[in-house]
Design goal:
Length: 285
Amino acid sequence: MAQLLDGKALALEIREHIKYQVDQIISTKGITPHLAVVLVGENPASQSYVKGKETACRKAGIKSTVIKVEESISEIELEKIIDDLNNNDSVHGILLQLPISKHLNADKIIARIRSDKDVDGFTPQNVALLTNSQPHLVPCTPLGIIRILKKYAIPIEGKHCVVVGRSQIVGKPMASLLLKDHGTVTICHSRTTNLRAMTLQADILVVAMGKPKMIDGTYVKPGATVIDVGISKVDGIIVGDVDFESAEAVAGYITPVPGGVGPMTIACLLENTLLCYETLVGAKK
């Protein structure tokens, strides 16, 4: 039976520490860290995620501003909003909630965000720094996963780490972070031949496919660490990309869904917002 990796408890620890830091900052500098979130359209999932981020910011003492715009907004109009936030000294972090309308070029809009306000770590500058093992602002979900592994003293160095999924949000930055910590990394994806043969080699298996319960215990090496990034609702029940009961019987460590990676993503967003604040306000000294 695998040991549970409790991301919810670790996230609470991190958030309490951030709250302490923010309180100290406000009392000594009188400037409140400020995150601006741009929400395009009425996507229910995006609205829910943004609401969760607002709540987390409020509890941490971080100011949160949500800029809601119509789904039909033009690229020029959206770029103007980003430019205004870039130039607003009272805004320390900027987040563009994804996905956005199909008529908009998400990569182009993200690239317009100032790299030192890029709390998601998605701009080309931050991606390049991470790829070159010089990370500054790192995507929140992969960062949260690394924090979980280190909290539970799960070694990365010299281990075979298999990442299933190659997105810019999770898969690719996850691979870069594991490489930085001297893991041997394999990236798999929808066109990988014989996926099971690859995952069975993993000492650390990170699954970010977006396919509910795709990975069961037959894909897991005995004693491996299984990190489930997926979150879906099936018949009204929240599940991950890993068939938890089947994998739990084989793995050494495993993250639950919910309560594993998700809370850490939010905690690391708050950390990145604080890092942006410290970088920007410190540069003015």
